[in-house]
Amino acid sequence: MIHSFVFLSKPVISSFPHRPNFNHTQPLLRPINIIKPISSKTSLEFPCNFLTRKTLFVSCPCFTDADTAKLTSDEEVLVGEDSAAFELGKQKISSWIYFTIVLGVVLFLLDFAWIDNSTGFGKPFVDAVSSLSASHEVVMLMLILIFATIHSGLASLRDIGEKLIGERAYRVIFAGLSLPLAVTTVVYFINHRYDGLQLWQLQTAPGLHEVVWISNFISFFFLYPSTFNLLEVAAVDKPKMHIWESGIMRITRHPQMVGQVLWCLAHTIWIGNSVAVAASLGLIGHHLFGVWNGDRRLAMRYGDTFEVVKKRTSIIPFVAILDGRQKLPKDYYKEFYRLPYFSITVLTLGAYFAHPLMQAASFRLHW
């Protein structure tokens, strides 16, 4: 991807106001991320020189409303980041070697300190929560509530925590507390998914398996783009709070919530009992809170820049596209022709065929 940096009549400043109504009698200053490279054949001829940079700042007193409209219609203008972008040529082998080492250490510690019943705290934790109620539905909800409180609580304290101990150290604490609780919740659901009261039985309905399978498959394509940044997730690269705007974000501003709803609905319809309903209610509730909390945190971090993204995206899928606030590029499909999405396809198919292995491994834990 090529970005350009433009100097016109006014100097560049570090912050900018969002101006919904441009007045051609006043100088225009706005940052523009341009997806396709600017060449000498660009439809708008700017009286300036082009240099390779990350952001394009335009400041020109002669820029009219018609020029602005033409630029907006001819070029894909982003104030956020291009999501799921992955350039193989820019990857450092040393970083991925370090990532592999970190992943191995994390998995070893997770197994030793939490999963292994002879050395870890996972089983005592599950037993302690289970002692509070004989209902699997209640225990399921409590496990989700504990995970949600720690996960969302630490996310809310991220700005303060990173200032105190740094981005990498805070990511280690965040992952170190969230990951064991997530594993526990998943294992408990697998082991008790057929417990509780059977509410309906539709597994023999014609075509239902195919509908459930497709829904689950699609749900994984709604992963939040930040999860693709594996080097940041593992704190190999310095973790950042991103504001994404392309790819899946054009469909919905909160794709992880949408994906979780799809996954929950598919599994609840297929299993059809009270434990599945309890798990779905807990997970969907957690992600709906994440919608509010995520927007709040981005607004605090990015201010007017996030308001621009918020106005032209929607929480409910496709709404911003249908009402005209989101303009899809002609080659929109290319924003999904990227390695992260191909990897998701392979991993999703692999997870489907690995279901018997996951179920056997969970059962052996007796959680």
TrEMBL record:
Pfam families membership: NnrU
BP GO terms, sorted: carotene biosynthetic process
GO cellular component, one term: chloroplast
Location, primary (coarse class): membrane
Gene Ontology molecular function, alphabetical: 9,15,9'-tri-cis-zeta-carotene isomerase activity
Topology of the protein relative to the lipid bilayer: Multi-pass membrane protein
Domain NnrU residues, every copy: 139-358
Compartmental location: Membrane
The protein, known as: NnrU domain-containing protein
Species whose genome carries this gene: Cephalotus follicularis
